[in-house]
Write a structure and sequence with these properties.
Elements lengths: L8 E5 L3 H12 L5 E6 L14 H4 L18 E4 L1 E7 L4 E6 L2 E6 L2 E4 L3 E3 L11 E3 L3 H11 L4 E5 L3 H12 L3 E6 L6 H4 L1 H13 L3 E4 L3 E5 L6 E4 L4 E3 L2 E4 L3 E3 L15 E3 L11 E3 L4 E5 L4 E3 L4 H17 L12 E6 L2 E7 L6 E7 L6 E7 L2 E7 L9 H5 L20
Parallel strand pairs: 1-2, 1-7, 2-3, 7-19, 9-16, 10-11, 10-16, 11-12, 18-20
Antiparallel strand pairs: 4-5, 5-6, 8-17, 13-14, 14-15, 20-21, 22-23, 23-26, 24-25, 25-26
Helix pairs in contact: 1-7
């Protein structure tokens, strides 16, 4: 297949799964012009989900998380380079590369700059207070684990609970602090979040919900975490999991619309620009099914968006196709696989429709305005049997449809 219009200089900003899949798709779809890939890390592209799981525990080695080599793409890869601006009038991306400023001309641009981890918001922190976003972060944490027996994890979202599960499986003493009333509450709601709260407690994690962290004790190295009620939690190592923010600072003044991410239509086209698409953690795409802009920080979404954005960039807006796939996500914690199909945000009710939370194997469905918005399951693969119910906005509760196509198995 060859592109239906001629582009000669395409720049991809970002080397995560969205940027990598976009670059691979450009070549696979017949683009034979200049291709430049800009990545802030010096590493070749790698699979980020393993950082909080198997790479952290040592179950896989560093080389085991690399994506396919980019050398086959015939692309100019700038590693350790940062996009610092874009001028749409002159069609140039400004890049800082090893302390030098460069200008990269383009007639097609893929924005896949991802997200940056939220740091502790109140001033500097002592040594031993760390975040996990990159492979270097993961290896730095691993290097300290042998000497650190008491770990405090701050944050009850997915990164926090996955890190807590991994560290607990390694035999470490783990305290998990969350300001919400249940773990994963912002993603799954309090009802379903309580299941994962109990799961972590059953595995020996000291879970404390509804607490606020005030700061840290220790001048050179952290000794404890201080809570807002004045109490302290002893710690040899603290891992902060407060989420991420889309990496959009470099787009200021470009005319590209940014509102909690790069605002895109359903084809991935960035608003406020032409011949510019965005994908992955940085992008807020209009989703036809949910009739709102969604920014979803999951592997499957980033991969599919990267492919779709690249194809649509090549064919142009007149032939671009909307992306309306039902979002899919998974998370392994201990011996439990969480699988979520759909978007449960702003749901009206949630109901267990198969099994029971007490047995550990269950399916729960989320309802919004009388329709099925999402399905959550701990039974591997079962969410796929409800895919058509979600895609067709079926009445709630949904009906079981066995044998539907499987979703991707990676996050």
């Amino acid at each position: 297949m060859s592109p239906s219009r001629q582009l000669s200089k395409v720049v991809v900003v970002g080397t995560g799964v969205a940027g990598t899949m976009a670059a691979q798709t450009l070549r696979a779809e017949g683009y034979d012009g200049e291709l430049t890939i800009v990545g802030g890390e010096r590493h070749a592209p790698y699979h980020r989900p393993a950082l909080s799981k198997k790479l952290l525990t040592g179950e896989v080695h560093r080389a085991g998380i690399d994506m396919a080599p980019q050398s086959a793409l015939e692309a100019h890869a700038l590693r350790g380079a940062t996009a610092v601006g874009v001028d749409m009038a002159s069609r140039i991306v400004r890049v800082r590369d090893v302390g030098q400023d460069r200008s990269l001309p383009f007639d097609g641009l893929v924005i896949a700059s991802g997200a940056v981890v939220r740091q502790w918001p109140v001033g500097p922190v002592p040594d031993g207070v760390m975040t996990l976003r990159t492979v270097d972060d993961c290896l730095a944490i691993r290097s300290k684990l042998g000497r650190r027996k008491r770990v405090v994890v701050i944050g009850g979202g997915f990164i926090g609970v996955e890190v807590a599960a991994s560290l607990r499986s390694m035999g470490l003493k783990v305290t998990l602090l969350s300001r919400t009333d249940a773990l994963l509450q912002s993603a799954l709601g309090e009802e379903m979040g309580r299941y994962w709260t109990d799961l972590h407690r059953r595995h020996g994690v000291d879970v404390r919900c509804g607490v606020e962290v005030d700061g840290f004790v220790g001048t050179r190295h952290v000794k404890a975490v201080r809570l807002s009620d004045g109490s302290k939690v002893k710690a040899d190592l603290v891992l902060i999991g407060l989420g991420v923010e889309p990496a959009t600072d470099w787009l200021q003044g470009s005319g590209i619309k940014v509102d909690r991410g790069v605002v895109c239509d359903a084809t991935g086209a960035a608003q406020g620009a032409t011949d510019v698409v965005a994908a992955g953690d940085v992008a807020r795409w209009w989703h036809p099914l949910y009739e709102q802009h969604l920014r979803i920080e999951h592997w499957d979404q980033a991969s599919r968006q990267g492919i779709t954005a690249a194809r649509n960039l090549l064919v142009g807006p007149a032939k671009a196709q909307e992306y309306d796939a039902v979002p899919y996500f998974w998370s392994d914690q201990y011996d439990t696989k969480l699988q979520l199909l759909g978007v449960p945000t702003d749901y009206d009710s949630v109901e267990v429709i198969e099994g029971s939370t007490s047995s550990g194997g269950f399916v729960a469905a989320y309802e919004r305005a009388g329709r099925t918005a999402a399905v959550l399951s701990t039974i591997p693969g079962r969410v796929n049997d409800y895919r058509s119910e979600i895609a067709q906005r079926a009445a709630f509760p949904p009906h079981f449809h066995a044998g539907q196509p499987a979703a991707s198995s990676s996050r």
